[in-house]
Here is the input.
Amino acid sequence: MTGQPHPSDARAPSAGSPGWATSLQECAEDARRTLAAWHPTSAPQDDLRQRFLAFLAEHGAQAVDRDLRVGHLTASIVLLDHTREHVLLTLHGLLGAWVQLGGHVEPEDRSMVQAAAREAHEESGIAGSVVDPQPLGIDWHAVRCRDSGRRIRSSQHLDVTYLAIAPAGAVPVRSDESEDLAWFGVQALPDAADATLRRLVDAARQRS
Here is the structure.
């Protein structure tokens, strides 16, 4: 694993600007390279990887743009505490469910793992987590999400999930985007946790 720095304080390009187009291109190309080099341990994940690559080939830079209504890539993180015995989950306002930290690619992002690390920092308030740059898993699901104009619309999320380990003594701070934020035992997830979250946490336990 390698530490992922928090994004620079330099002014990020705004959505729709030429700089934003460059950010999209860089993130889409990073996603393509990352997924092409990744070797999942299960056949279903490898089949889904091929579908992600086909989506990227079809849509190019727009594949990571939250305004692409047909769907777009997103980035998330399974954040474990330093003991590897607890996972930090957020109660998502739109979904009404406990999920891993994550969200859309933003103008300051230059790679999918940077987007995931930024989202984890923003949603947890925890700095200094160590992020594994290799994907932990991927998932394709229907969702209601906000576009760049903050309108709530139906779309599809093609989520790339990474693993991160929080520093000892890390104290999470809930962001305005979350209804709640809490550590759960990796073997004591919320009863309503779906199969995807359980699969990702199991994968995190095996890798960590």
Observations:
- The chain has a mean pLDDT of 90.
- The two ends are 10 Å apart (CA to CA).
- The beta strands are 2-3, 72-80, 86-92, 97-99, 101-104, 130-146, 152-165, 178-185.
